[in-house]
Amino acid sequence: MERIIGIDYGRKRIGLAVSDPLRVFASALETVQSAKIIDYLKNYSTGETIVRFVVGYPINMDGKPSEAAADVDVFLKQLAKAFPDVPVTLEDERFTSVLAHRAMIDGGMKASERKDKASVDKISAAIILQSWLDRENASQNGGISFAANPAAIQIPETLSRNASGKRRRKK
Questions:
Q1: What is the DSSP code (8-state) at residue 141?
Q2: In which band, very low, low, confident or very high, does the pLDDT at 163 lie, cut at 50, 70 and 90?
Q3: Is 68 in a helix, a strand, or coil?
Q4: In sequence order, what are the residues at sequence separation of 6 or more whose Cβ sits closer than 8 angstroms to the Cβ of residue 124?
């Protein structure tokens, strides 16, 4: 099946996310050591057809590339050499780590689990990819995106958690 891969590049680790076959939703896939990323992607591509890479690009608040952009540029050259027929799209990655931490808290992850940087990296990759998918789907569907707005999802009272993370008891 055709997949789009989201990438949150880091010097030590790279977070990966993958689209569903309909290209509506992004899911966290894996966190891979930077030195092994090309081999991992080549291996992944033997089972799935990669039709695009969406790579988070570090941009400062003034809109200019940050210092880390130089590292991403080197990676982009390696990616283009290894996958010359797969297009690459750059996506602004500002605040993705903050959003990833927020998603982890909202998802009920324990503080000890949120300290795992590998989890943050792959969730950040999913946020980068979902951002691109939402914009792409909206542009192709007259401004309408089919991705769900997480804030609009109602959680039944019996399943919601209180501030301590424990389920509320029904009275």
A1: T
A2: very low
A3: coil
A4: 8, 15, 56, 93, 96, 97, 99, 100
Of 144, 130, 124, give the one whose Cα is nearest residue 24. Answer: 130
**How would you classify the pairing of strands 49-57 and 2-8?**
parallel
Backbone Cα Rg of the chain: 17
The span from the CA of 128 to the CA of 74, in Å, is: 19
pLDDT at 49: 95
Phi, psi of 64 (to 5 degrees): -95, 150
In one letter, which amino acid is 131? S
Tens of pLDDT, residue by residue over 89-126, are 998 776 566 565 566 556 666 666 655 565 678 888 98
pTM: predicted TM-score of the whole model, two decimal places: 0.73
